[in-house]
Amino acid sequence: TSQATCLSVTEDFIFCGCSDGTVRAFSPVNLHFLCTLPRPHCLGADIASVVDARKDSRYPDTVAVTFDPTNRWLSCVYNDHSLYVWDVQELHRAGKLYSALYHSSCVWGLEKVLYVDNNMTNLLDMDSITVACANSEKAGSSVSEAQQMDQNRVGIRTLRVSPSGKHLASGDRMGVLRIHDVESMDEILNVQAHDSEILCLEFSKPETGLQLLATASRDRLIHVLDAAREYSLVQTLDEHSSSITAVRFAAQQGYFNVFLSQMGEGLEFTRRHHVVRKTTLYDMDVEPTQKYAAVGCQDRKIR
Predict the structure, then answer these.
(1) Burial environment of residue 35 by CB neighbours within 10 A (0 to 12, 13 to 18, 19 or more)
(2) pLDDT tens per residue, range 158-217
(3) Gap between the Cα atoms of 168 and 166, Å rounded
(4) Less Cβ around it within 10 Å: N or C end of the chain?
(5) CB-CB contact of 189 with 179 (8 Å)
(6) Closest CA to 205 of 285, 266, 296
(7) Can you tell me the distance from the alpha carbon of 250 to that of 235, in angstroms, rounded to the nearest whole number?
(8) How many whole angstroms separate alpha carbon 46 and alpha carbon 32?
(9) Strand partners, 19
(10) Contact criterion met (CB below 8 Å) for 189 and 176
């Protein structure tokens, strides 16, 4: 393999974790090669249904191994944040005892799991990639490329399921809005909605009588889309002076920070309230009676 990253040494075995999901076993007496253990799932695979990996499949690098000689279990951690425990009672017939796949980066919300990018590098821990590059012959240029890759890293930033349960809206770090059909997971909309990452998505409640989707971004804009008309643009609100961290619809005629008036077939939002705080506002929600909005702030207070 291209590199070895970790070792676990006992009286019976030396296990060496390597790149591309490879783990090799050696004899501690004479260092003779014994066998290669099975690899974990390939990157981008649906682990609930995958049977056989493709020939061109890529695997996460092994970053840590440890062996339990009493139970003869080998635990392996890979750089896509997955954990496998292999039963090596019979070394040449090792089988998976347990596995867990954790998130490859910080989690901003939870509604559904889907892959939106074919670049498998985005599933890996960038720190280990940088270390691998630093150990290569072209350390200088490779590390620079890895750092640039980290800066340009894509990924879903926020998720929201429509009240009907039919559509899944997602906004990524590049400002792209996607709409998926929940039943088939087919992508029915992909549009560059904002110039920077989308921080919040919100569908209007059914009791409003409207089917709207609001998208808020670090570019200081809110777009209001009509979900009933193929997510066509209703209005763009550009009155904010900084990143928009939360947007909510209320069920009453008046909204917390905008007022919606229905004129014929068109909709128009006008600002109703403008409240300024010295501290950063991180998140917001409207309580069930629709009379109050609670805001979580940087100074650890809820207002």
Answers:
(1) middle
(2) 999 999 999 999 999 999 999 999 888 899 999 999 999 999 999 998 877 889 999 999
(3) 7
(4) C
(5) yes
(6) 285
(7) 17
(8) 36
(9) none
(10) no
- Residue 302 is given by DSSP the state B
Residue 76 — φ and ψ, nearest 5°? -130, 135
Give residues with Cβ within 8 angstroms of 102, minimum separation 6: 81, 82, 83
pTM score of the predicted model: 0.59
Residue whose pair of structure tokens reads 């996607």 in the numeric block: 178
User: What is the DSSP code (8-state) at residue 42?
Assistant: P
Rounded distance between C-alpha atoms, residue 81 and residue 163, angstroms: 32
Smallest CA-to-CA distance from 191 within 202, 172, 204, 178 is with 178
Which residues, listed in sequence order, are joined to residue 235 by a DSSP beta bridge? 224
DSSP annotation of 118 reads: S
- Using CA atoms, how far apart are residues 298 and 275, in angstroms rounded to an integer? 16
Letter for the amino acid at 46?
D
Counted residue by residue, the chain has a size of 303
Q: Report whether 112 contacts 182 (CB < 8 A).
A: yes
